[in-house]
Write a structure and sequence with these properties.
By secondary structure, this protein is α+β, with helices and mostly antiparallel strands.
């Protein structure tokens, strides 16, 4: 071997020793150093399979850290809307990190731990170095058991809308005051029911009346009542009760033979009324109806109108009762 070749060989060996030997020494020193035992990972919510695998990889990585690079830290882990929220608590304070991908969990945590100063206490001259604690994996605290799902009572299915159509014809009698007249009347009624609500239209005609006072020659009274009402239906065993409020326009006529050309005239009022009705099924679409009602003319009740001073005042309130048949069309 020439002197030049020998010189080059010696130079390469020296260069190799300069870079390799310190790295080997450092690796041996780390191999003798205790491993990380002061990092605690605490999941606080249930995690999916991808995040659970990332947590396991994080435990393995932090467990291999030497104690000199391992701060005292608690890492809380909670999942929310596909993102993992890390709460890193050390003696220097608390910080949060958001991790959006399981692959980014280990680099983010290791970077955060590397930025935390590690507390070290050097032994005094008279104090021997403490024996290293046996290596153990990073503590992984089991997450709390998830709360039991609340037992919810299913809502009842919505009640289907029930629509019915009825017609009824009833005959009865009516007393009108202060006229003191007793009337015979007939009523036709058309009802539309939606579930338990009733929408009614009525036509009532009272063709003749009898006075309960001093007789008047040739006295005659009749009225026509056109009304609209709304009410509620109640089932009472096999029977059905209908309660309604109504408003109507009443056309009245009163006459008497007090002179050669007769005396009398027409009038009209608005009346408000209430009706109570009981319906008893007879079989098929037919039912028996019994009804009672009362009406008042609120605008003239204090000052009854007259068509002639010699005739009684027009009725300002009435009471009636009727019975008849109802036919269910739908």
């Amino acid at each position: 071997m020439s002197e030049r070749s020998a010189a080059l060989l010696v130079g390469h060996v020296a260069l190799l020793a300069t870079f390799v030997l310190p790295a080997v020494a450092q690796a041996r020193a780390r191999g003798d150093e205790p491993l990380c035992t002061s990092v605690r990972i605490v999941p606080t919510t249930p995690l999916g399979s991808a995040w659970s695998a990332a947590i396991s990889a994080l435990v393995a990585e932090t467990s291999r850290l030497p104690a000199s690079e391992c701060p005292d830290a608690t890492i809380s882990v909670r999942a929310t809307r596909g993102t993992l929220i890390l709460g890193i608590t050390t003696r220097h304070g608390t910080a949060e990190r958001a991790v959006r991908s399981p692959d980014a969990l280990v680099p983010i945590v290791l970077g955060a731990l590397a930025s935390v100063p590690v507390a070290t206490v050097a032994p005094t001259r008279d104090e021997a170095p403490a024996a290293p604690a046996p290596a153990s994996p990073v503590e992984l605290v089991e997450p709390p058991a998830p709360l039991a799902e609340p037992v919810s009572t299913p809502l009842p299915p919505p009640t289907p809308t029930s629509i019915g159509v009825d017609v009824a014809v009833t005959l009865g009698a009516r007393y009108g005051a202060p006229t003191r007249v007793l009337l015979a009347d007939v009523e036709g009624r058309f009802d539309i029911t939606v579930n338990r609500w009733i929408f009614a239209a009525t036509l009532r005609y009272a063709p003749a009346g009898v006075l309960f006072r001093e007789p008047i020659a040739g006295y005659a009274y009749d009225e026509i009542d056109l009304g609209l009402g709304v009410g509620r239906r109640i089932d009472v065993g096999p029977l059905r009760a209908d309660l309604l409020a109504s408003a109507s326009i009443v056309l009245m006529n009163e006459e008497a033979d007090l002179n050669e050309n007769g005396t009398g005239g027409d009038n009209s009022d608005v009346r408000l009324g209430v009706t109570a009705r009981v319906v008893a099924p007879l079989g098929g679409p037919w039912s028996l109806v019994v009804a009672a009602d009362g009406e008042v003319a609120p605008f003239v009740v204090a000052t009854p109108s007259r068509v002639d001073a010699r005739l009684p005042p027009m009725p300002t309130w009435t009471l009636g009762g009727r019975a008849g048949l109802l036919l269910a069309l739908q």
